[in-house]
Design a protein that fits this description.
This protein is low in regular secondary structure. It has no helices and two strands. The chain has a two-stranded antiparallel sheet with strand order 1-2. A hairpin with a 6-residue loop joins strand 1 and strand 2. The protein is globular and about 35 Å long. The N terminus is likely disordered.
Length: 80
């Protein structure tokens, strides 16, 4: 799945320099799923998007950041 997290104010949508999150950092937000229309297209980092892979995207975290994503409804988790 590819994710985009949180509800952000208009001012927070401007370009930001990615900063590594400290270990244990947490954010709660709404995730979006991207499928067929984006499958096979290049992502922002130049990689080809595969809708069958477990990947995530975030507006401020740098590329190659590992995240544990939890579904708050069923408590299932996955590392992406």
């Amino acid at each position: 799945i590819s994710l985009s997290c949180g509800r952000h104010s208009k001012s927070s949508r401007s370009a930001k320099t990615p900063v590594a999150a400290p270990v244990g950092w947490s954010e709660t937000g709404i995730a979006s799923w991207y499928g067929e229309p984006y499958h096979g297209r290049r992502a922002a980092n130049g990689e080809v998007f595969n809708m069958h892979d477990l990947t995530a995207a975030h507006k401020t975290l740098p590329f190659n950041t590992w995240l544990r994503v939890r579904n708050l409804t069923n408590r299932r988790e996955v590392t992406v």
